[in-house]
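Q: what sequence does this backbone want?
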């Protein structure tokens, strides 16, 4: 049996089409209706901890305006023995502003609930974490202006645009 594979130019074209579609779902760095539907589905899968990778979880944080819990699917990046969350949409993402209003108090869900404290990482320390994040979060790649295999210096250049939070147990 002869195995054929997709040639690299075709792979790049398909990847570029998927990236454009993903960016369209997040016009203005806000999830549109299609993204919201897909996120709700992902939240259920990630929270249950089935049919999803171990780094896929659901973040719960208190809404700054409503005071009600807000949830969203996220990817946790592990680096140097620590766990991190990254905002693929930058500092104006709703969850980032909610975390600031909640003074870092939040919860992760995956086969249970874990109360956590999020602490923002200084921009100069984010580069290796961002690179690790893009390795585990393919859905975030369209929102970054660099390739996941770029040199660390490229990640250092964009690091101020992408908030990173270290995950610690709740205090």
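A:
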């Amino acid at each position: 049996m002869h195995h054929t594979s997709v040639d690299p130019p075709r792979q790049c074209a398909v990847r570029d089409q998927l990236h454009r579609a993903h960016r369209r779902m997040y016009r203005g760095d806000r999830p549109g209706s299609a993204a919201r539907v897909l996120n709700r589905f992902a939240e259920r899968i990630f929270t249950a901890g089935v049919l999803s990778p171990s780094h896929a979880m659901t973040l719960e944080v208190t809404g700054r305006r409503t005071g009600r819990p807000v949830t969203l699917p996220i990817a946790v990046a592990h680096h140097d023995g620590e766990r991190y969350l990254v905002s693929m949409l930058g500092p104006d993402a709703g969850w980032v502003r909610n975390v600031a209003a909640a003074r870092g108090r939040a919860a992760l869900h995956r086969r249970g609930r874990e109360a956590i404290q999020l602490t923002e990482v200084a921009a100069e320390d984010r580069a290796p974490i961002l690179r690790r994040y893009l390795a585990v979060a393919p859905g975030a790649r369209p929102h970054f202006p660099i390739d996941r295999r770029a040199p660390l210096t490229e990640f250092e250049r964009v690091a101020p645009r992408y908030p990173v939070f270290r995950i610690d147990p709740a205090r």
